[in-house]
Amino acid sequence: MSCCLLWNLLFMDLLYMGLLFVNLLYMGLLYMGLLYMGLLYMGLLYMGLLYMGLLYMGLLYMGLLFMGLFYMGLLYMGLLYMSLLFKDLLFMCFLYMGLLFMGLLYWVSSIWVPFIWVPSVWVFSIWVCSL
Question: pLDDT, tens digit, for every residue of 55-84?
């Protein structure tokens, strides 16, 4: 009887140990599952942050690209303005030089031409008359 009781207790103890082992295994698997879920969550969070970071970097890049294009546009507008200003100044310079040249030509023609032209006509007429 005591032998059966001993075997019975031993069996119950082994069963209890087995259940405890299964329970610990279950707890361990649950812990591993939670750990896995936590790691998965952390991974997803990291991926999300990475995605957000990449999105932020993309937006920053797009913003910098936009700023660069805007700056290039302003630079182009500035160069266009400078070019137009330069052309305008060049045109004004040429106009001024032309007016100055016309004025000099007028001054030369009004003062020096009679002194050059009239004696040459006299010389030409004297030469023709002498023939």
Answer: 777 777 777 777 777 777 776 767 666 666
CA angle 92, 95, 97 (to 5 degrees): 110
> What's the rounded Cα separation, in Å, for the pair 87 and 90?
5
Q: Which residue has the tokens 């005591």?
A: 2
Digit-coded pLDDT (tens) for 80-112:
666 666 676 667 777 777 777 777 766 666 665
**To 10 degrees, the CA torsion angle through 96, 97, 98, 103?**
90
Q: List C-alpha distances in Å: 27 to 44, 55, 66, 80.
A: 24, 40, 55, 75
Question: What does pTM read for this prediction?
Answer: 0.24
- Please, what's the largest Cα pairwise distance for the chain? 178
1: three-class secondary structure by DSSP: coil
Instruction: Please report which residue ranges of the chain form alpha helices under DSSP H.
Output: 2-130
Cα R_g (the chain), whole angstroms: 53
